[in-house]
């Protein structure tokens, strides 16, 4: 083998150790997360600290991680990565802040699924399905959102899922229609498709 | 060429690109102006409702409203595919119970603000929406509405 080829092979092997994906850690051991059939989905159980993402990035740190108004993330113990958390375990378009807020700046264990194509995005994103404070035996399912929404919207009573009764959503749909193009376009679409 | 120099050149050629924040790097911060579509990051990244093109624009507008009101992070999808996770909008926190973040769902906007990158994720504190062209991605005739129950069925 020519020495230049040998050099390239060795360089390739060495560089692979530094690739951001070559040594991607498998966090699935012990996870009891449910798979949802999502893009590049991986079960993941890990420990870390719940943080206010903007505080973590910029030093702009209001009390109590923004008191429910900010996006929260988890700084993972294993590698120090700030994990962007998109979702709780509920199926009806529910975010995760209400589930993470009680653990603001605390150590936790979280179980869920990492999603997203890491080679394209240079990161994976997290859906946390259950959480417990570090060292405590009891896991809590992440399903606080609906209860918190009811507290925030005491007047939104009636039947149907929350997203049919939410006043902010109803206001936008009244203003711009379901397609966002106005009621005339909605009517045209409905006439052709329903 | 000496072997060690050859090795160094080969390493340079073979090494992957180290984007900012790939491995627990400290965040970088700079003011930027970007143009893109305001999207629902969960549906776009997770594929829960189908491919990424079907969960943008008019096809997904109602669901984008649901997810924004639901507290799922809103993003700005730039033309090069970069997604900027919005951490503030015109001085408001993203989960403030106001109409500010609702009013720009699915819109094509130009946003100016502070850009942070950490561990591969792009974050944006939007200081100002410099321009808003409204919804320009009219894709409902290609994909229908996604999900298909976004528009309630009329009762007979």
Please explain how this structure is put together:
- The complex is a heterodimer of chains A (194) and B (156).
- Chain A has 194 residues and is an alpha+beta fold.
- Helix content of chain A is 31%, strand content 22%.
- Chain A has 2 domains: 125 residues, OB fold (Dihydrolipoamide Acetyltransferase, E2P), CATH 2.40.50; 41 residues, no CATH class.
- Chain A has a 5-stranded mixed β-barrel.
- Chain B is of the alpha+beta class.
- Chain B has one domain.
- Chain B has 4 helices and 5 strands.
- In chain B, strands 1-2-3-5-4 form a 5-stranded mixed beta barrel.
- Chain B is globular and about 55 Å long.
- The N terminus of chain B is likely disordered.
- Chains A and B meet through helix 1, helix 2, strand 3, helix 4 and helix 7 of A and helix 1, helix 2, helix 3, strand 3 and strand 4 of B.
* Helical content band of chain A: 25-40%
Quick one: how many beta strands of chain A?
6
Helix content of chain B: 10-25%
Largest interface: A-B, 68 and 69 residues
CATH C-level label of the largest domain in chain A? Mainly Beta
The total strand number of chain B stands at 5
- Give the CA-based shape of chain B: globular
The low-confidence parts of chain B are 1-24
Strand content of chain A: 15-25%
Structural class estimated from helices and strands of chain B: alpha+beta
Arrangement of strands in the largest sheet of chain B: 1-2-3-5-4
């Amino acid at each position: 083998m020519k020495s230049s080829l040998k050099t390239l092979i060795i360089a390739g092997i060495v560089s692979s150790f530094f690739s951001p994906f070559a040594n991607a850690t498998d966090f699935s051991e012990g996870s009891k997360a449910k798979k949802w059939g999502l893009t590049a989905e991986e079960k993941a159980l890990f420990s870390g600290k719940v943080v206010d993402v903007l505080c973590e990035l910029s030093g702009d740190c209001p009390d109590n991680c923004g008191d429910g108004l900010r996006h929260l993330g988890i700084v993972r113990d294993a590698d120090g990565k700030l994990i962007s958390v998109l979702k709780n375990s509920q199926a009806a378009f529910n975010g995760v802040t209400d589930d993470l807020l009680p653990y603001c700046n605390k150590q936790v264990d979280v179980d869920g699924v990492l999603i997203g194509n890491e080679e394209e995005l240079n990161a994976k994103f997290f859906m946390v399905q259950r959480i417990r404070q570090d060292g405590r035996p009891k896991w809590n399912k992440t399903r606080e959102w609906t209860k918190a929404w009811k507290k925030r919207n005491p007047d939104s009573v009636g039947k149907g899922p929350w997203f049919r009764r939410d006043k902010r959503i109803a206001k936008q749909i009244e203003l711009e229609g379901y397609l966002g193009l106005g009621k005339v376009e909605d009517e045209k679409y409905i006439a052709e498709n329903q | 060429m000496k072997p060690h120099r050859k090795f160094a050149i080969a390493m340079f050629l073979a090494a992957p690109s180290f984007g900012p924040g790939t491995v627990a790097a400290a965040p970088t911060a700079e003011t930027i102006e970007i143009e893109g579509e305001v999207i629902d990051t969960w549906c776009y990244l997770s594929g829960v409702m189908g491919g990424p093109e079907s969960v943008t624009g008019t096809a997904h507008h109602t669901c984008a409203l649901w997810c924004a009101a639901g507290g799922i992070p809103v993003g700005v999808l730039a033309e090069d595919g970069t997604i900027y996770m919005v951490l503030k909008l015109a001085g408001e926190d993203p989960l403030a119970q106001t109409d500010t973040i609702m009013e720009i769902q699915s819109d094509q906007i130009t946003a100016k603000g502070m850009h942070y990158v950490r561990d591969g994720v792009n974050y944006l504190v939007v200081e100002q929406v410099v321009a808003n062209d409204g919804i320009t991605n009219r894709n409902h005739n290609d994909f229908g509405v996604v999900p298909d129950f976004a528009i309630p069925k009329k009762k007979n």
